[in-house]
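User: Can you model how iron/sulfur cluster sits in this protein?
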Amino acid sequence: MTATSTTTSTASYAADAAPRHDWTLDEINALFALPFNDLLFQAQQVHRAHFDANAVQVSTLLSIKTGACPEDCKYCPQSGHYNTQLEKEKLLEIEKVVAQAQAAKEAGASRFCMGAAWRSPRDKDLVVVEEMVRQVKALGLETCMTLGMVDGEQATRLAAAGLDYYNHNLDTSPDYYGEIITTRTYSDRLETLATVRDAGMKVCSGGILGMGEGAQDRSALLQQLAKLSPHPESVPINMLVKVPGTPLENVDDLDPLEFIRAIAVARIMMPQSHVRLSAGREQMSESTQALAFLAGANSIFYGDKLLTTGNPQAERDRALFAKLGLHPERRDTCEDDTQHTERLAQQAQRNAQAERAAALAVDASV
Ligand code: SAM
Ligand code: DTB
Ligand code: SF4
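Assistant: Here's the modeled complex, given as structure tokens:
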């Protein structure tokens, strides 16, 4: 064979193009359909135009309230609708959370993510989690929480306490969503994401692959995430962890190469976002994880546990980083208090401007 191979498809985008929010399903499907090498080459070019290609952001997760959740998410071991033999736990004491955060920092994490199995937080819980945010942030860690749906007042309070990121996943496509969750809607999820953004927090939003969805659903999920403007700063792509007792425990495996394609397409569509190789790493080979990094993933959960299920042992991850020549992303991108306050003030200004523009548009139309 003598032919030289170049990218022949039209699905080719400039590596340093500005972020777009108008991706069509045809464009996304065309990216998925590229020859694997062409797709990964393009994703790697985009990645290198925006990031240090060998740096990986490292977050550690802690479940601060476990199980007995009123929602019926079919993938979730914490839903009260299914019997998963999970040990339920009330909201943890602040000191326990801070001690775990300190340990995560010492182990090398730059962000501490706290998750609660709630539909939405009650006001008496919010007071406690605000204090957790303050104390974890005081350790010099970035803070992230995922507490379910929040309203404007709750989001503003969390932002004021110093919460940097709010995680709220779209999980799947609008069409497939109803097969997975019936107790809240896609619009509910989008509304919380808008509320979080308006409060000035950074957005962490992604989904789960391998829930029996089709290729079109994976494209539509990425389309919905990229519609968010600005794009979520963090995009977790989870591979379903099949937990016995959940309705999805026996769903067919997703081909790992399809998972890698989705990471590469996410990287191309949301060039400035951190794409997190999220749940499911314990069940993944090192080669699949290496391909995920090559496809543009640049964030992981680090530590032996996710929320309730296992994650690779920290030692194994350190060895993998050494084998691949990866290093944890430096912490100097963390905001200090002054930057945090400035960012909240700037967002409040943008909100006020948007409100004035909307009021003018209404005036002009009457
Ligand atoms: N209750 C809050 C919520 O749903 O937003 C926060 C906690 S919830 C466990 C956070 C996310 O974990 C979910 O949105 C889902 O994407 C992910 N998740 C839960 N169970 C999972 C599983 N078995 N495999 C992969 N990801 C999972
Ligand atoms: C996300 O997208 N994945 C994390 C985090 N955000 C909160 C949670 C994964 C949970 C996996 C199942 C468990 O351990 O309970
Ligand atoms: Fe509850 Fe969140 Fe699990 Fe759904 S994903 S059951 S909302 S903890």
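A couple of observations from the model: The first helix runs from residue 25 to 32. The beta strands are 55-65, 111-116, 142-146, 165-167, 202-204, 207-209, 234-239, 274-277, 299-301, 327-328.
User: Helpful, thanks.
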